[in-house]
Amino acid sequence: MTDSLAPLGALDIAAQLTVLGALVAALVLALIARRSTSDGPGIAAGAVTAAALVTALATGQNSSGIAVVVGILGIVLATLGGSPLTEIVLRSADRGGRNHRGSPATAATTDTGGPRIADGELLKGGTTIGYLERFLTAGALLAGALTAVAIVVAVKGLGRFTELDSPAARERFIIGTLASLGWAALSVSPALVLR
What residue ranges do the domains of the chain occupy? Predict the structure, then answer.
């Protein structure tokens, strides 16, 4: 009998349930972060998701059905939880940010967290694009379709190309995209490890 077909021990089951519970907790924290004025819930959601990955890595691969549930939960967490974390990263970049000439960065976030370009005009549809980007990225990673991730990034970049005239807008676009993609990857990584 191969290891992947061996029955699960009590410790394996407990670890997999811990991963599942951690992702549920991270989802709750991410939903709280969407309404919170504090960065705390968003940062906690990221930390709990990272803890879920570490626990999944300690558990190892197994063909149990829990990986499917963890995968679905990971897609939901990636999609809904990415906005607060992306906003935290963008605000952090703006706080100490300097543009290429050494003056303070001029880009800012709106009251709703949507990205702005340097002249103050809102990038329309940014939140919806972020949801779609994370949903498609998480699904592609779970399906093993890494080329699809590249296509998502390419379509997003081509779609926004004409709106990114200033260095500050381009920088925010890159930082926001990388934060969003990183969150999507982190959110589904426990499922990738458990399958």
Answer: 7-194
Q: How far apart are CA 74 and CA 189, in angstroms?
A: 8
pTM: predicted TM-score of the whole model, two decimal places: 0.75
pLDDT in tens, 180-192: 999 999 999 999 9
pLDDT in tens, 97-131: 554 434 444 444 444 444 544 444 456 778 889 99
Is residue 143 classed as helix, strand or coil in its secondary structure?
Answer: helix
The residues near 167 (Cβ < 8 Å, ≥ 6 apart) are 99, 100, 118
**Separation of alpha carbons 136 and 146, rounded Å:** 11
Dihedral sign for Cα 167, 185, 82, 75, please.
positive
In whole angstroms, give the CA distance from residue 125 to residue 191.
30
Q: What does the buried/exposed string (b/e) look like for 113-149 if buried means 16 or more CB atoms within 10 Å of the residue's CB?
A: bbbbbbeeeebeebbebbbebbbbbbbbbbeeeeeeb
Contacts of 64 (CB under 8 A, 6+ apart): 8, 12, 16, 194
6 phi/psi in degrees, rounded to 5: -65, 145
